TrEMBL record:
GO molecular function, one term: hydrolase activity
Domain DUF402: 20-158
Keyword Coiled coil: no
Metal-binding is among the record's keywords: yes
Protein name: DUF402 domain-containing protein
Origin superkingdom: Bacteria
Alphabetical UniProt keywords: Hydrolase, Magnesium, Metal-binding
Length: 182
C-alpha cells in the first residue's frame, strides 16, 4: 500500500468485500476526520449504503468510523438517543487505494451497548463462510486472536472505546460539517 494521504474534510467511499472477492457492502460517503498510514477516522450521517444484492438503505444516525492498518477489525461508533453503540466488524486491516477504504469482512461482529456490555454476533455465519469460502487455519487464528484483542480494548476502554475518543471525534465531525455548510 502506498502512503495514505487523506485530506481532512474530503469524502470517500468505504467498500467491504467477502473473502471470495465479492463486494459485500458500500457506504457512499464518509467524511475524513483523520488519516495516516495506520489509522483512518471518519464520520457519516444519513449515508446511502448499498448491499451486495443492490438493495439500499440509509444510516439512521451520526457515526464515527475507526480503521487500523495493524488490527483485524474496524469500529463504528453510532450516536443514538440513549447513548453510544459500537458495531465492531472482524475484518482484514484496511487498505486505501485512492478510490476507497477497502477491507474484507470476516462475518464475526461485536456489538457494544452504552452500558459497556457486549456480545459476539454471527458465529454461525462465520462457521458457514469459513467452510464455503475456505478460510485458512491462519486466517481463522488471526480472526480469533483479534476477537480477543477487541474484547480487551472494549473492557479497558482503549482506542475508539475511550470516552475522550468519542467526544473529540464527534465534535470534530460537527465542526467540519458546520464549516462546509457555510
Amino acid at each position: 500500500m502506498e502512503d495514505v494521504n487523506l485530506i481532512e474534510g474530503e469524502t470517500l467511499r468505504i467498500q467491504s468485500y467477502k473473502h471470495n472477492g465479492h463486494i459485500h457492502r458500500v457506504w457512499s460517503e464518509t467524511l475524513i476526520l483523520y488519516g495516516d498510514d495506520n489509522i483512518i477516522i471518519g464520520g457519516n450521517d444519513h449515508t446511502l449504503v448499498t448491499e451486495s444484492d443492490r438493495r439500499t438503505w440509509v444510516t439512521r444516525e451520526p457515526a464515527i468510523v475507526y480503521f487500523h492498518s495493524e488490527y483485524w477489525f474496524n469500529v463504528i461508533c453510532m450516536f443514538r438517543d440513549d447513548g453510544v453503540y459500537y458495531y465492531c466488524n472482524l475484518s482484514s486491516p484496511f487498505i486505501y487505494d485512492g478510490e476507497a477504504i477497502k477491507y474484507i469482512d470476516y462475518d464475526l461482529d461485536i456489538k457494544v451497548y452504552p452500558d459497556g456490555k457486549y456480545h459476539l454476533l454471527d458465529e454461525d455465519e462465520y462457521k458457514l463462510h469459513k467452510q464455503r469460502m475456505r478460510y485458512s487455519d491462519d486466517i481463522d487464528y488471526v480472526v480469533r486472536k483479534n476477537v480477543d484483542i477487541l474484547q480487551s480494548w472494549i473492557e479497558e476502554k482503549k482506542g475508539p472505546f475511550a470516552p475522550d475518543f468519542i467526544k473529540v471525534w464527534h465534535n470534530k465531525f460537527i465542526d467540519i460539517k458546520t464549516k462546509q455548510l457555510r
